[in-house]
Amino acid sequence: DAKTTQPNSMESNEEEPVHLPCNHSTISGTDYIHWYRQLPSQGPEYVIHGLTSNVNNRMASLAIAEDRKSSTLILHRATLRDAAVYYCILASGGSNYKLTFGKGTLLTVNP
Amino acid sequence: DTAVSQTPKYLVTQMGNDKSIKCEQNLGHDTMYWYKQDSKKFLKIMFSYNNKELIINETVPNRFSPKSPDKAHLNLHINSLELGDSAVYFCASSPHHRGQREQYFGPGTRLTVT
Known about the structure:
Chain A has about 110 residues and is mainly beta. Chain A is built from no helices and 9 strands. Chain A has a 5-stranded mixed sheet, with no helix packed on it. In chain A, strands 2-7-6-5 form a 4-stranded antiparallel sheet, with no helix packed on it. In chain B, about 0% of the residues lie in helices and about 55% in strands. With about 110 residues, chain B is an all-beta fold. Chain B is globular, with a radius of gyration of 13 Å. Chain B has strands spanning about 5, 10-15, 20-25, 30-35, 45-50, 55, 65-70, 75-80, 85-95, 105, 110-114. The interface of A and B includes residues 38, 45, 93 and 98 of A.
């Protein structure tokens, strides 16, 4: 499985934008970039995913570099409820799809 | 309505016992998964079923036996429980078994083996 690299932790202030980076230099052409988050004592929650183009949904935006070797998850206005571990994961577009979780980035949101 | 549900939420049992965890999804998805999150918080895939057929088995001990009676259910039976089986087990589902789509996770079952 292709590997991703994320900072161990980041801090943000409430109502400010947050940019969570992810490097994935060994990404293959069929790998989708997925982002999940896990709030304390809860199951992982899907945030967003994409292949080549930038993506927006109600939770966040995903900016994908042109060479696809890195991506950034953007939370436009952080709230206290966004404090979680954020995982950047590469998932093959082929069969036998699975999510391989790394350590993720622990996001702390200050009031 | 809960999309992916698991029972029980907590399970405390002794070494050597056999226990089962149940998972149900009402999303109409074809593919279901079991993940294990250990005490160090690492999440690892254990099994994946697509339309009741096993498609991923990540070298899990054969004491763990998943069973999918239909595509909405994926149960996990564990024989001869060991201390190292203590973890949080998450069930998940996705529309199909390709990475173009997202996975939805259940709330988890915290298993404690004493």
